[in-house]
Amino acid sequence: MRRILVDECINPRLATQLRSSLPQSSVDTVRDLGWAGQRDHVLIPEIEGRYDVFLTIDKGFEFQHDLKKLPFGIIVLTTANNQMPSYERLLEELARQIQHVSPGHLVHVIDPEY
Question: What is the mean pLDDT of each run of 10 residues along the chain (114 residues)?
Fold first, then answer.
């Protein structure tokens, strides 16, 4: 079972889709946990030990943090917009990457129509 955290900048309906696609996994959103508005330096310690995978659209994440020190994997999503059709196009690849991303590594999943 993978524990997944969806960043606040991602359409929260993606979490619902992931719960259906990955029923053996746990999926939470930053908003659900009351962590909205927190900066990375506050959010990262909260993620550590609680989650295996962090989903974000923050393209600067890999340049702002020492990824090798993070005990969770990061997936950066690139979509045409924040609407569900954009996320649905990459859902299959996203589910695959969630299963394989390892701690301290970052993977990009890009909407084919981006």
Answer: 96 96 97 94 95 96 93 97 95 97 97 88
